[in-house]
Design a protein that fits this description.
- It contains no helices and eleven strands.
- It has strands at residues 3-7, 10-13, 18-25, 32-39, 46-51, 58-60, 68-73, 78-83, 92-100, 115-116, 120-125.
- Strands 2, 4, 5, 6, 9, 10 and 11 form a seven-stranded mixed β-sheet that branches.
- The radius of gyration is 13 Å and the shape is globular.
């Protein structure tokens, strides 16, 4: 059974940066696409970014494009979300998720991710 553990959240001010980490165990990480989602208080969960299993392609929501970067280190079984120029509207619980399979390009927007972490909280104050 795959396990995902997020870390790196915190409370920062507008314009700051954070890097979230997702440690994956239990299944070969290099066989799975990786994604980050977030859920703000009172709102539904939303897609943030995803990356193919080989790290060759990635996709972002329009709200984070140009500010966030998703990456992965398959040798370390770890995924990352570098978040720059944070805004108050980025405040949310952030979750990483995986799904085994070969997904590239715009397919990454439609993956039904089936393994999830417990989340890490990000708070951005103005």
């Amino acid at each position: 059974q795959v396990q995902l553990v997020e870390s790196g959240g915190g409370s920062v001010q507008t314009g700051a940066s954070l890097r979230l980490t997702c440690a994956v165990s239990g299944r070969p990480f290099n066989l799975a696409a990786l994604a980050w989602f977030r859920q703000a208080p009172g709102k539904s969960r939303e897609f943030v970014a995803a990356i193919s299993r080989g790290g060759t392609t990635s996709r972002y929501s329009d709200s984070v494009k140009g500010r966030f970067t998703i990456s992965r280190d398959n040798e370390k079984n770890t995924g990352y979300l570098q978040m720059n120029n944070l805004k108050p509207e980025d405040t949310a619980d952030y979750y990483c998720a995986t799904k085994e399979g070969y997904y590239v390009g715009d397919q990454l927007f439609r993956v039904d991710f089936d393994s999830w972490g417990q989340g890490t909280q990000v708070t951005v104050s103005s």
